[in-house]
Specification:
Layout: E1 3-8, H1 12-27, E2 31-32, E3 41-46, H2 51-67, E4 72-77, H3 78-82, E5 95-97, H4 105-112, E6 128-134, H5 145-149, E7 153-154, H6 157-169, E8 174-179, H7 195-203, E9 210-213, H8 223-231, E10 238-244, H9 248-253, H10 260-273, E11 278-285, H11 292-304, E12 309-314, H12 331-354, E13 360-369, E14 372-377, E15 382-385, E16 395-403, E17 408-412
Parallel strand pairs: 1-2, 1-3, 3-4, 4-5, 6-8, 8-9, 10-11, 11-12, 15-17
Antiparallel strand pairs: 6-7, 13-14, 13-16, 14-15, 16-17
The chain binds iron/sulfur cluster (SF4).
Length: about 425
């Protein structure tokens, strides 16, 4: 039975793609291999969002070529479109697939492998990732995504509902909805559809346990959508917003067309409607033109906001984007500011987790670990249990017993 290993880099959409490829490989008769030196096929789903992502992708490809020169290497996605790979890193025969070829990646690999009859019909993962949209029509001045992934394209509502139905029937309790710009869902379709329409359709499916939204653009988050996502108990109380900054001057330079005051109102409304929700955001530090006063504004906003966690990115110029040609903030300044914001974010995350000590929360069993069983609560807290009656993918109730700097401990609750 031919074996495969998939290495993913980058965003939730890449994770959703990898999820469905792995499912198709396994259903097509291939076997998952954890050891890179032994896999027959190595698929690398790449990311070129930051200079660091480029470096990590190239390093991994060089490592695979060294460890397993006999493997068939398939490299897909943004680094192929963005031209950031070097020919000397690639093994002879490596297959390069741009984003536009990802839809047929699983078929291409299966046709290259000598697979026996299709097999599994049980869930192979604990949580299902469902990609509903790709690409973006906006043009933030730092972002390479529109040029590597193209314009926004949505799958039809009918197709998504059918895919979700299959995932539920195969036993998945949680579905994570993914898109590059989820909030644009349906605007490209004829006739047009909307993200809230899609959500309403999904929430009517029998057997759906939890629906998690990967990321939302605050520019498209109106009161109606906030009410919908906070009212339905099957939508996970976990909302991640792509804010990027909180100084109006920097937001304008980024081409975001939004203000810190607008962000504040949205976060406040989410908090009022869903007091237990984890509220998170992406933030970019060291964007060209960011001055000390802008950074102070960002810090003040985060400290005073109901945000519970952050993904902090140090800005890195992407060739072909407007901001790459502007005067850059010194690297030492960028890393100093990033470290300060990350420390604040860690404090907020810890305070958030501590709020739930002793409380009963809904969770999905993620995996067994050497020291216990890892579960993820509906409001995005990773909890380690000493033991658990559920298998990977099962829905359980847990109680948080201890919050450490990195780890949260808990016990199964009845
Ligand atoms: S909205 Fe998001 S994906 Fe689209 S250009 Fe801006 S940062 Fe990039």
């Amino acid at each position: 039975m031919p074996s495969f290993l998939i290495q993913n880099f980058g965003c939730r959409v890449n994770q959703a793609e990898v999820f469905s490829w792995a499912e198709e490989f396994e259903l097509g008769g291939m076997r998952r291999e954890e050891d890179p030196a032994r896999a027959d096929f190595v698929v690398v789903n790449t990311c070129t969002l930051t200079a660091r992502a480029d470096r990590d992708v190239r390093k991994f490809i060089r490592r695979i070529s060294r460890l397993n020169s006999g493997a068939r290497l398939i490299i897909a996605g943004c680094s192929v479109d963005g031209g950031s790979l070097r020919s000397e890193d690639l093994t002879p025969g490596a297959l390069l697939l741009p984003n536009s070829a990802k839809a047929r990646l699983a078929d291409s690999v299966l046709s290259l492998s000598d697979t026996p009859e299709a097999s599994a019909s049980k869930p192979l993962r604990s949580r299902a990732l469902l990609k509903v949209q790709d690409g973006c029509d906006l043009s933030c001045t730092f972002c390479i995504i529109p040029s590597v992934r193209g314009r926004s394209r949505s799958s039809s509502r009918q197709e998504i509902l059918a895919r979700a139905r299959r995932l539920i029937d195969r036993g998945f309790r949680e579905i994570v909805l993914c898109g590059i710009h989820l909030s644009s869902y349906g605007l490209d379709l004829q006739p047009k559809d909307s993200f809230s329409g899609l959500l309403r359709g999904l929430l009517e499916l029998d057997g759906l346990g939890m629906l998690r939204l990967s990321s939302l653009d605050p520019r498209r988050l109106d009161d109606g959508l906030i009410d919908l996502i906070t009212r339905n108990p099957r939508v996970c109380p976990h909302f991640h917003l792509s804010l990027q900054h909180a100084s109006d001057r920097v937001l304008k330079l980024m081409g975001r067309g939004s203000t810190a005051a607008g962000y504040g109102r949205i976060l406040q409304r989410l908090r009022e409607r869903s007091p237990e929700a984890a509220l998170g955001a992406d933030m970019i530090v060291g964007f060209p033109g960011e001055e000390e006063s802008d950074f102070d504004r960002l810090l003040g906003f985060v400290a005073g906001s109901p945000l519970d966690y952050l993904h902090v990115f140090s800005y890195s110029p992407r060739r072909g984007t407007p901001a790459a040609d502007w005067v850059q903030v010194e690297d030492s300044e960028k890393s100093g500011r990033s470290a300060i914001l990350r420390t604040l974010a860690e404090d907020k995350r810890r305070t958030f987790r501590e709020r739930f000590i002793g409380k009963k929360l809904k969770a999905i069993v993620v995996r067994k670990r050497a020291r216990g069983v890892e579960v993820l609560t509906s409001n995005y807290i990773d909890v380690l249990l000493a033991s658990c009656s559920g298998r990977a993918g099962a829905e359980v109730k847990v109680r948080i017993t201890r919050v450490g700097p990195r780890q949260t401990d808990g016990e199964e609750a009845v």
